[in-house]
Amino acid sequence: MTAFTYFKDEWTPVIDNYLAKHLASEIDDQKISQIMSYSVMAGGKRLRPLLFLATLNALGKKIEESEIRLACGIELIHTYSLIHDDLPAMDNDDYRRGKLTSHKKWGEAEAILAGDALLPLGVQWIAEGSNSSELVIMITKAIGANGMVGGQYLDIDSTNNASVADDEKFINKMEWLKTGCLIQASVEMAAVYAKASDIEQVKLVDFAKTFGRSYQIYDDLVDVVETSEEAGKATHKDEEEGKNNTLTLLGIEKSRKELKDLISQAKADLHGINNEVLLGFLDLYHKVL
Ligand code: GRG
C-alpha cells in the first residue's frame, strides 16, 4: 500500500459518510434530498475533496469536522456540474458513475433543480467550514463564467465546429476552464486555508495547474481506452459527437506522451514539498498509459 492508498482509504469513507448524513439531515424536503443524494452518493472518486484534504495534510494541518465540511462542499459543486453536463441540452448522457443519470432517473426538471440546489449548498458548506470570504471568492471565481461554466460554454459553442479542431490554444483554454479551474481551486483553497508560506503556495498551485491539465487528458483517454462498464459512463463518444479536445487534436499516442510529460512536470512542481500522498494522485493515470 502506498501513502496515497492509505490516505484515500482513510478519508474516502469519512467524506462519503459526511455527505450522506448531512444531505439527509440538512434538507427539509425528503424528495429533493433523495434526488440530490442519488447523484452525490453514486460512487464518485472524491478526487477534489481528497486533493483538498491531501494538501492540508502536506502542510501539516489537522483534519477535523470543519475541514471535512469544506472538502465536501467542493464535491457537491462538482456533482452539480456533472448532473447539468449530462442533461439533454448539454452532453445528453444516460449513465454517470455507473448509474442512470439524474434526469433519466428522476426527470429533467428534477435533475436541473437538484443541480441548482447542490451548487449553493456547496458554497454554503465551504463558507461555513472555512469561515472565510477569501475561500468563497476563490471557489465562486473557479466555477463561474471565467472558470468552469465558461469552459463548458466554449465546449458547447465549439462542438461540431471544425474551425477549432486544430486550434491548440482554444482547446487548451476550454479544457483548462472546464476541468482545471476547480482542481486548482481544491488545492489552492487548502493552501490558503492552511496558511502555506508563499513558496509552498507557488509550488502547490503549479502542481495543481499541471494536475488539472493532465486530468482532462486522462479523462479524454478514458473515453477511448475504457469500456462503458469500466468508466461507469458512455465511452467512445467524443469523436462521434464532434467534440474538440486534446485527444481529437493529437490522437492517442501523442496524448499519452503529453500526459507522461505532465506527470514529470507535476513531480517537479512539488520539488521541496515531495509529499507522497499528493504525488500518489499521479498513479491514477497508469490505467490509460
Ligand atoms: C454544466 C456548468 C457545467 C459544467 C460541466 C464537469 C463538467 C463541466 C463537464 C463534465 C464533462 C467533463 C469530462 C469534464 C471534465 C471534468 C471531469 C473529468 C469530470 C469527471 O470528474 P471525475 O473523473 O468524476 O472526478 P467522478 O465521478 O469520479 O467524480
Poorly predicted spans: none
Order of helices and strands: HHHHEEHHHHHHHHHH
DSSP E strands, number: 2
Specify the CATH homologous superfamily: Farnesyl Diphosphate Synthase
What's the architecture in CATH terms?
Answer: Orthogonal Bundle
CATH level 1 name: Mainly Alpha
Main sheet specs: 2 strands, antiparallel
**Unique bound compounds:** geranylgeranyl diphosphate
Oligomer: single chain
Q: Kindly state the percentage of residues in helix.
A: over 70%
Q: How much of the residues is beta strand, in percent?
A: under 5%
By CATH, the topology is Farnesyl Diphosphate Synthase
- Derived from helix and strand composition plus strand pairing, the structural class reads mainly alpha
End-to-end Cα distance, whole Å, is 21 Å
- What overall form do the CA principal axes indicate? globular
Task: Indicate the radius of gyration in whole angstroms.
Answer: 18 Å
Number of separate structural domains: 1
> Residue-averaged pLDDT, rounded?
94
Give the neighbour order of strands across the main sheet. Answer: 1-2
- Can you count the helices? 14
